[in-house]
Amino acid sequence: MESVLEKVLIVEDEVHARSGLTELIESWGYRAECAADGMEGLEKAVSWAPAIVVTDLKMPRMDGMELLSRIGELPQKMAVVMLTAQGSIESAVDAMRLGAYDYIPKPVDPHRLKTILHNASRQREADAELEAEGRQQRDTGVLGPMVGSSPQMVEIFSMIERIAPSNVSVLVTGESGTGKELVARALHDLSARRLKPFVAVNCAAIPETLIESEIFGHEKGAFTGALERRAGCFELAEEGTLLLDEIGEMPMATQAKLLRVLEDRKLRRLGSKIETPVDVRVVAATNKDPEKAVSNGDLRGDLYYRLNVFNIQMPPLRDHLMDVSAIAEKMIDDMNERHHCTVAGLKDSLMNRLEGYQWPGNVRELRNTIERAVILAGSGMLGIEHLPPHFGEPGFAPPPNRVGGMETILVSQEASFEDGQRRLDESNSVRVEVGTTVDEAERQLILKTLVATHNNKTKAAEILGISSKTLQNKLKEYSNASVTE
Fold first, then answer.
1. Are residues 105 and 166 located together in one domain of the fold?
2. Starting from the edge strand earliest in sequence, which strands make up the sheet with 31-35, in order?
3. For 370-400, what is each residue's pLDDT tens digit?
4. Which of 258, 396, 407, 423 has a CA-to-CA distance to 299 between 20 and 30 Å?
5. C-alpha radius of gyration, the chain, whole number
6. Which residue, among 284, 296, 2, 275, has the nearest Cα to 122 in the 3D structure?
7. 124 in the same domain as 96
């Protein structure tokens, strides 16, 4: 028998069905109340705050679909179960797409209804446990994949928590490498869409000729090379969350089509005459000042205002250096799992060096630095000896130009691959000083390239222009040398 404290509201306009369901549900140990139509049901939902609402679909004054929508706007989360007459199953499925927990056809099968109520009650308990766990993590400076206890990060965590349950668009701004994608993932993970897809697309990494196809999809024959029908990112993220990173790099014509999709919740694939409904939450991100981008003509003003329902401004890492320690410890755990290492933590001397650095590449640069150190150490505690040569010293990060004649050579390597496009990141570089041996320069270049490719040895070998076997031999040689030392 379910807890007598669990409350169920029955909304049904037919008198006998309403009284029968109320008695049946009460017999299973629930506290039950009833309402004669959607309007009365909404009033009782507000005042009584049930855990579960069982509602008919067709009712006077306010039908079940509108009731579902209005309940979704309430601060109290309720599981809505839709009752459907014969021939209304399609409408019930649509209701589930809009957030209903489940549906059951009439005449009601008592066994099935009891099972649905039981499962809904258990789901509610699971959600409460997840929320409690999340609250405990947040008290220790953790929100999903994000870490930080500085005032700036606490404020950002609070905003994410407030807006995540809604479906409103969010614009995330901040310098490159500050963790804008982590914000989007946290918004997704804390929303009702968390079990649905999270799709991220970098607008700057897709050629202008392909971006509409990538985002909206295309039909077979829509253009030369379109050999089959293909779903775009919107359809891939159906019922989930779509991150449009570097939105300011999107062509203006594509921005106009995106605005229409956001307003109409329908899209038309390239080459199609049919509009397809989409249910996707859109989070956009940019490292540009969006207002300047609008004034410069890089971003449509109407699209900016449509996306900027909420704005989350990510601070550069240099403005919250007190979080470096916690972020680095979290990264060590991630790198240990990824690279099968057993690093235990950071020595105080290394921590002081990290906290005294200004991090022009922000969290991304910190991640690259920690990943390099973990790979080099393999186990034990990370120390200053695992940092790049001259890390944190004056002049450590000069611009990627020739400096002082031939005294410094800056060799830039590929930082990451996003959607198959090469992007250059100045923080991924090898600084080779005069007096450095060729073997040491080669070792730094190989290890940095491995960091940039997330330890993808095949891709690293391709970038370096050597065979995979040669790369494996080099890594074995470095490993043996480390053991000897």
1. no
2. 31-35, 7-11, 52-56, 79-84, 102-105
3. 999 999 999 999 999 999 888 877 666 523 3
4. 423
5. 28
6. 2
7. yes
Domain final position from 355, 381, 407: 381
Backbone angles phi, psi at 277, to 5 degrees: -65, 145
Question: What are 289-298's pLDDT values in tens digits?
Answer: 999 999 999 9
Q: Are 323 and 186 in contact (CB under 8 A)?
A: no
CA distances from 97 to 33, 107, 335, 396 (A): 26, 23, 38, 53
Residues 308 and 362 in one domain: no
pLDDT at 67 over 80: yes
Is 90 in a helix, a strand, or coil?
helix
Write phi, then psi, for 52 (nearest 5 degrees): -135, 140
**Same structural domain for residues 99 and 189?**
no
Distance from the Cα of residue 268 to its chain's centroid: 25
139 CB-contact burial (10 Å; exposed 0-12 / middle 13-18 / buried 19+): exposed
- Rounded CA-CA distance 18/56 in Å is 10
Rounded (10°) CA dihedral 119, 121, 127, 130: -90
Beta bridge mates, 35: 11
Judgement on whether residues 364 and 478 belong to the same structural domain of the protein = no
Structural domain for 240, as ranges? 140-315
pTM for the full predicted model: 0.59
Q: How far apart are CA 233 and CA 210, in angstroms?
A: 12
Work out how many domains the chain is built from and give that number.
Answer: 4
Q: What is the CATH number of the domain that holds 81?
A: 3.40.50.2300
